[in-house]
Amino acid sequence: MAGQRVQRVAAPLRAQVLEVLRQDILAAEFEPGERLVEARLCARYEVSRTVIREVLRQLESEGLVTTVPNRGPVVTELTAFDAKALFEVRGALEGLAGALFAERATAEQREQLGKVVRRFARTYRKADLAERLAMKDEFYDVLIAGAVNPVIESTLRGIHARVQMLRGLSLQADGRAPETVRELEAIHDAAAVRGDADAAREACERHVRNAAATALRELAARQREDQDTDAG
């Protein structure tokens, strides 16, 4: 399994490895439940055990890695129950963030939200998964900043980290990306253009409900495939 070579440039080496390994997990280079063996990771990314251990600790704090007794670190494997619980909380918090953005965001933040949405609409067809996720992250960065609530910010960022793999499943599903564009445009219109807090809350909650339905469906399909493979 050939990984991306880590470039030794200005950014700290640990930060580079963290970003590359995070993207490899999100791109399913490592399967859910797969052991992350330090020696193999050192060889893959050409770095020391110390760097790998620091990176794994950070990814564990983000929810992408889980330490299992007698096995060590593995790629986190979310159950359907876990995923549903995360999406329920995410929907409530993003709805509140959207409503607060409509009430509190600056003119600059409103314009920035529109720029992100328009770029996503222009480029999603040719963008790969990493690029789509990066644009979604930028969208949420602006939305959360405009909500001006540090509790929402810290809590929602933690939830987003844990559902990153599920977001990947959702964004890769057939037909989901165009739906995402329409939903983000609705959030932008309600929150940034009209400043309608109630409509912004509903648009954000609808987006999360639809993303959850798609991700849970894709998760179930992947689990069925794994079961069929094991049975064969």
Summarize the structure.
The protein is mainly alpha-helical and 232 residues long. It has helices spanning 13-26, 38-45, 49-62, 80-104, 107-123, 129-147, 150-162, 164-172, 176-193, 197-231, and strands spanning 65-68, 72-75.
Q: What's the story with the biggest beta sheet?
A: 2 strands, antiparallel
Share of β-strand residues: under 5%
Instruction: Tell me the span between the first and last alpha carbons.
Output: 24 Å
- Give the H and E element order: HHHEEHHHHHHH
Mean pLDDT: 89
Helix content percent band: over 70%
Instruction: Name the strands of the widest sheet in spatial order.
Output: 1-2
Low-pLDDT stretches are none
Structural class: mainly alpha
Radius of gyration: 19 Å
Q: Specify the number of helices.
A: 10
Total DSSP E strands: 2
Global morphology:
globular
